[in-house]
Amino acid sequence: MSAGTGSVFSMRGNVLRHNLLTALLLGPATAWLVVFLVLPFVAITVFSVGERAPEGGYQAAFTLAQYANLPARATAFWNTMVLAPAGALACLLVAYPVAYYLALRAPQRWRLILLALVVIPFWTSLLMRTYAWMYVLGGRGIPALLAYVGIEDVRLINTPGAVLLGIVYGYLPLMILPIYVSLERLDRQLLEASADLGATPISTFLGVTLRLSLPGVMTGFSLVMILLLGEYLIPTLLGGGKVFFIGNALVDLFLQSRNWPFGSAIAITLVAVSVVVLLAANRISTRLSGARRVDLI
Amino acid sequence: MTAVPDIEFRGVTKRYGSVIAVSGIDLAIPPSAFVALLGPSGCGKTTCLRMIGGFEQPSEGAVFIRGHDMAGTPPYRRPVNMVFQQYALFPHLDVEDNVAYGLRQARPRLSSREISRKTGEALAMVRLAGYGRRKIHELSGGQQQRVALARALVNKPAVLLLDEPLAALDKKLRTDMQIELQNLQREIGITFVLVTHDQEEALSMSDFVCVMNGGRIVQLGQPSEIYDEPADLFVADFVGKTNLLSGKVVGLSGKLVDVALADGTVIAARKRTPLAQGEAVSVSLRPESLSLGAPGSGRLDGLVRNRIFLGSTAEYAIEVQGIGTLLAKADHLVGGGNLFKPGEPVAVGFTAGTPLAFPENNGTNQRENKNVEIVS
User: Fold this and answer.
1) Interface test with B, best of A197, A204, A205 (most B CBs within 10 A)
2) What contacts A60, CB < 8 A, 6 or more positions away?
3) Chain B CB contacts of A194 below 8 Å
4) CATH number given to B241-362
5) Is A209 touching B (CB cutoff 8 A)?
6) Which CATH number fits domain B7-233: 3.40.50.300, 3.40.50.1220, 3.20.20.70, 3.40.50.150?
7) Taking CB atoms and an 8 Å limit, are A192 and B88 in contact across chains?
8) Is the reported ipTM for this assembly greater than 0.90?
9) According to the CATH classification, is domain A74-288 in 1.10.3720.10?
10) Which residue of B has its CA nearest to A212?
11) How many C-alpha atoms does B22 have within 13 Å on its Cβ side?
12) Mind listing the pLDDT tens digit for each residue in A14-43?
């Protein structure tokens, strides 16, 4: 009996300790999120309904004028809305075969090495790698080589094509990895069952492999797409300021013209668009893959 | 046999690198038979099944389905269907779409009315009518098993392949499904090839049992034949329970041999292969062929160590000095007068000639396999 009560007490102690431990473990992350996500978000929201002070910056007010002014940056929105999905799609088209090979075809002993090769470029900063592309695509890079073999006047840098290439190059691993994971988890016996039931390899791919890897595809697509919505670096370096993204507009508004309220309104709109994209992707992916729920946010 | 066999293996060998999984198999499976490939894990039975399905190619020899050499024919062009061990049902499709999957692959295309009619029939056959719109994960193991059966049978295959289909079910459900499978096979009349490591399942369900060991067929026969007349020590030990006693041949007389056991007792045993005078042998004694009686009345004297009362029968572990522990099984007669208690001395008897003698070295190295396998 006494042993029984003793254990109840120690259990209560355990629960307390457990709660304390949980709080300690969650503390740093929570503090980080509050300081660097929640507070800035609140600040930006407040800014977005304010006015630009005469000397630049923010002046308290309550107006939706900044939102009404959004069409003034329609080109940046348009570029982003076209190039972000196009970039994500291009990424997907390149990444899927790679992920498929890695997960289903590559010999087991090579798999880890090949995966490492996919990830290793991430160890260098995107800035450095994009600079490298600037030189590769620039006047003394590929065009110079082409001129050497007689093909003159090829212009690669500062074109939408260059931006797209930079996007695919920079974000490929983010697309490959989730697709790889979903294909790796695919029960091989389902592929055999499909063949056993008379499905040709193409039908099996479309009806089983692709279908069951859709959660990975949607995860990769929304990851890349959302990062692209805020992309700043690649259009600047490879698009030469001619292909103008929302990210570039934001830098401009906050740092150059110091129109904080208008910048904030654009930022809030961007966040809203991202959330909509995520929710839609989540919805589609859940519906297509049947039972399993995939929660992205 | 005049009819073309449904399945025929001719000199089939399968190697994975330097490992030989299946070695020189010749086997003809007659139409409308229920055949079990039985053996411990790694004996090559699943490899054989997968070669019929087209998921593995023989390294040597050929597999024929209804007289056609299947070399180079991919799985999706073979007239066979498989029930996979974990069922391999498509998680993104509901029950009806799973069953209709094979029908939708047919060229020329079947009309959607035709597909839904056949699907409905198949589901009714496995007693799942009305479950068409259920998701796979909403079904119990036994129901999933039946969906897998319907999905395979709806295509009217020449042969149905079953890869350990009952391994994932609990004991009660397994017994039900054994009967159901047997009935289905008789009803449809196509050949069933069942792979199993469970000797009881093989004996109870099939018309023919093909016992495999180390990539070879060691015995092919009807269940009773396999049980009563095992070809070698491995089969005797693997199929059913048996007592194996070491001894030495001390006399030869026609089909019988006299074997001196470790304690000096000489018993008469039948032989399956030629044995020489003085050869070391293992004598197999089925537990149910032993009879227990009052001390002094039998061939060997021992002490009851344990009794496992099973209702209609009782099993005894009997320790015999100089020989070891014997397992005996006795019918339990109403009134209970024939029950022995642990610690009680008993005499163990058996009819002369019921023991079977096998050369000692044959197959003994495989014996450990028997208990290791849980699921292959």
Assistant:
1) A197
2) A50, A51
3) 90, 101
4) 2.40.50.140
5) no
6) 3.40.50.300
7) yes
8) no
9) yes
10) B92
11) 30
12) 777 888 888 899 999 999 999 999 999 999
